[in-house]
Amino acid sequence: MKNGQMTNADAMHHETIVLGSMISDNSQIPHARQRISTRFFRFPKNRIIFKAILEMHKAYKSVDVVSLLSYLTDENRLEDAGGAEWVADIMGRVDVAQKAFKAARERKL
């Protein structure tokens, strides 16, 4: 944060953690729906992914990387959502964060 303002890098980090958590654990989707709106997302591609996850969940569809990519493709929104590489990158960022938190808990940091 700079001067009390969140930097683009900070915002991207927070957004990808939220999205990745929703994709990796669908039980988080209702909690996110209640607490987060699309205004939370500074980056349009992340906003599109967030909306797609909510739409899929509302339609009782399981959300994982493959089903999300398929949904975005069917809705002609994959390119606007940053493409398949971006969705995969979100999951990679979450995996790194989860490993860091686990290591911190194990070391009681």
| Separation, N- and C-terminal Cα atoms | 22 Å
Radius of gyration in whole Å, from Cα?
Answer: 14 Å
The CATH topology assignment is DNAb Helicase, Chain A
Strand segment count: 0
Integer average pLDDT: 89
Q: Based on the structure given, which CATH architecture is correct?
A: Orthogonal Bundle
Helix content: 55-70%
Number of individual domains: 1
Strand count, sense and barrel status of the largest sheet are:
none
CATH class category name: Mainly Alpha
Strand content: under 5%
Shape: globular
In CATH, the homologous superfamily goes by the name DNAb Helicase, Chain A
How does this model look, in words?
- With 109 residues, the protein is mainly alpha-helical.
- Helix content is 68%, strand content 0%.
- It has five helices and no strands.
- It is globular and about 40 Å long.
Task: Give a quick summary of the entry.
With 109 residues, the chain is mainly alpha-helical.
Question: Can you give keywords for this protein?
Answer:
about 110 residues; mainly alpha; DNAb Helicase, Chain A; 5 helices; globular
Question: Layout of SSEs?
Answer:
Elements: H1 8-24, H2 29-35, H3 44-58, H4 65-74, H5 83-107
